[in-house]
Write a structure and sequence with these properties.
transcription regulation (chains A, B); DNA-binding; mainly alpha; Four Helix Bundle (Hemerythrin (Met), subunit A); 233 residues; three-stranded antiparallel β-sheet; homodimer; GntR family transcriptional regulator (chains A, B); DNA-binding transcription factor activity (chains A, B); 9 helices; 3% strand; 66% helix
Chain lengths: 233, 233
DNA sequence: ATGAGCAATATTTTCGAAAATACTTGCTTC
DNA sequence: GAAGCAAGTATTTTCGAAAATATTGCTCAT
C-alpha cells in the first residue's frame, strides 16, 4: 500500500465511517492486515485518508463484530486467530445457521426458491469458468457468500441474521488463511448442490444435517491446513 | 435531567466513550430514554458532557448491540419496540441460552456450582427484604442478571456469551416497559429455584426446558401487558 | 550487570470548530 | 389553493489540534 496520504472519498456506504469500516473489514478478512497486527492511527490515517475520529468509529464497529480487539488506552489490533476461537466460532455458526435454515425452509416462498437456485447457478458458472483456483477468486467468494445467504434469507429473523453475517466474515478470514497453505481446495460443488436440492425439496432435516457437516468439515480442514500459523493459545 | 452542561468524568470504563456507552445503555434499558426517541447530539452533549465524536463512538457500539438504530446522515434514535422485535429477540434468546446452559451443565466445575448457588441466594434475600416491588429495584435487577449469567458462565463460548449479553439487555428493556403497566410481577422465585436445582443436579434436559419456558413466559407476559405501548408494526 | 526512577517520545483519546447534509419556511407560479 | 423552488436554519459528519496516557530509553545507585 502506498505511503502517500490519500484523500478518502466514499465509494460504498453513505457515511465515510461506514465506508472505511467496509474497506477495513475486507483488508482483515483477506488477511492483508494480519492477525494480531496492531492498528496504529497514524498508519491508518495514511492508508485510508480519514481522520482519527472517523477511523475510531469504524474500528468500534469492527470490534463489535469480533474482527478487531481493543485494549483500552492501548489501541486496537486485528483479532488474533486461534484454534480455540475457530472452535468457538464454528459452534456458534452451526447453532445459528441450522436454526435459520430450518425456518427458511419452512417459510420460504417462490422468490426464496428463485434466489437459492439462481445464486447456486451463478456459483456453478464461475467454477466452470475457472476450475483451478476459484477459491482465491473474489468473484467466487462473493457468489459463495450469496448462495449461503440466500439459503437462510427467508427465515425472518433479523437479529440472528445479523449475527450470522458477522460470524460468516470471521469464518471467511480463517478460510482465506488456510487457502494460503492448502495444496488444493476441497470440491464443494457437490455439497452445495445437495444443499440446494434438500432446501428446495423442503427436506429440512436433511438440509440441516448437510449445512452442519458443511460448516464443520470446512472448519476441520482449516484447522488441519493452517494449524502451523494459527496460534495454539 | 438538568440542562446545565456537565463536565463528564469517568466512573466506570477506562475510556470516556465506553463510560458514556454504559450510561446511555442504562438510560435506554430503563426507558428513561424512550423507544424511538431521537438522539440529538446537542442534547446528548449537554446531558453527558462529552463531545460529538465521543458520543458518536458510544452510539456506534449501542447500534451494534441493537439498542440504537441509525439512518445514515439522519442521526441516531433509540431502537423502536415492536411485537415482531420482541418475538425475534425471544426466539434468538431461547436458541442461544439453551445451548449455553446445556454446555454449562456439562462442563461446570465446583466454582460454577458455587456461583449459581450464591447468586440465587443473594436474589432470594433481596426478595425477602422487599417482597412488594422488588422488580423495580435496581439491586434486584442486578442480582437477577447475575444469577442468569452464573447459570451459563461455564459454557466456555465467548462468542455466544457476548451475543447473549446483548440480547439480555434488549430483553430487559421490554421487561421494564411491561413493569410500568403490570399490576403485579409474576413470582419467579420458584422458577429460579427449580432452575438452580436442575442445573446443579446436572439434569440438562429439564434445566433447558425450564429456561426455555422461563424466557418464553416472560416474553408472553410482556406482550400481554405492554401491548398498548408497543407498536404493532 | 541490574533495576528503579525519570525524562523524552510515541500513541491514543478527547475536544470544539468547520464542512457537508438534511430539514423548514416562505415565496412564486400555475 | 397546491406544487415546486430557494434561502435560511438545524443537525449530522468530518477534521486536525490539544490533552491524556502509555512506552521507550537513559542515568544512576546498588
Amino acid at each position: 500500500m502506498t505511503t502517500t496520504a490519500l484523500k478518502a472519498r466514499k465509494e460504498f456506504g453513505k457515511t465515510l465511517a461506514s465506508d472505511i469500516a467496509h474497506r477495513l473489514r475486507n483488508e482483515i478478512v483477506t488477511c492483508r492486515l494480519k492477525p494480531n497486527e496492531s492498528l496504529k492511527f497514524d498508519a491508518l490515517r495514511l492508508s485510508f485518508g480519514a481522520s482519527f475520529t472517523t477511523l475510531r468509529e469504524a474500528l468500534t464497529s469492527l470490534a463489535a463484530e469480533g474482527l478487531v480487539v481493543t485494549e483500552e488506552q492501548r489501541g486496537y489490533k486485528v483479532a488474533p486467530v486461534t484454534l480455540e476461537d475457530l472452535a468457538d466460532l464454528t459452534h456458534a455458526r452451526i447453532l445459528i445457521e441450522v436454526d435459520l435454515l430450518r425456518r427458511s425452509i419452512e417459510k420460504g416462498d417462490d422468490d426464496w426458491e428463485i434466489r437459492v437456485i439462481s445464486s447456486l447457478h451463478r456459483l456453478a458458472r464461475i467454477e466452470e469458468r475457472a476450475p483451478e483456483d476459484y477459491a482465491n477468486n473474489a468473484e467466487w467468494k462473493a457468489a459463495h457468500r450469496q448462495f449461503h445467504e440466500a439459503l437462510v434469507s427467508a427465515s425472518g429473523s433479523p437479529t440472528l441474521l445479523a449475527m450470522r453475517n458477522a460470524l460468516f466474515d470471521r469464518a471467511e478470514r480463517y478460510r482465506n488463511l488456510s487457502a494460503m497453505f492448502r495444496p488444493r481446495p476441497r470440491d464443494k460443488a457437490g455439497e452445495h448442490r445437495a444443499l440446494m436440492q434438500a432446501a428446495i425439496g423442503r427436506n429440512a432435516d436433511q438440509a440441516c444435517d448437510l449445512i452442519r457437516s458443511h460448516i464443520q468439515t470446512t472448519s476441520d480442514n482449516v484447522a488441519k491446513y493452517a494449524a502451523d500459523v494459527i496460534g495454539a493459545t
